[in-house]
Amino acid sequence: QVQLVESGGGLVQPGGSLRLSCVASGSISNVYSMDWLRQAPGKEQRELVAWIYGDGVNNYANSVKGRFTISRDNAKNTVYLQMNSLKPEDTAVYYCRYRTTWGQGTLVTVSS
Question: pLDDT tens digits, residue range 29-84?
Fold first, then answer.
């Protein structure tokens, strides 16, 4: 059974950077994407931020395109989200997802 553990969240000033990591334990197939989603405070829906397949093919939500970079290390079963030029509206709990398995989330707060 796959388990996902995120890390790297924290408090950062607007314009700053953070790098999130998600380590997967268990059997991961490169056929499926690993995804980052976020849920902003007070919002019920989670936004799909970025996703990446095992061959490196990836895509981003328009809201983060050009600022966030997703990468994947298949040997380490790890996916990363490099977040640059952070804005207050990026404040959210960020979740890693593989198929139907979710991590516990890591909080990112962008504030001065």
Answer: 989 999 999 999 999 999 999 999 999 999 999 999 999 999 999 999 999 999 99
Among the listed residues 27, 8, 2, 10, the one whose alpha carbon sits nearest the alpha carbon of residue 81:
8
User: Which pLDDT tens digit goes with each residue over 69-92?
Assistant: 999 999 999 999 999 999 999 999
What does the block give as tokens for 22? 């998600």
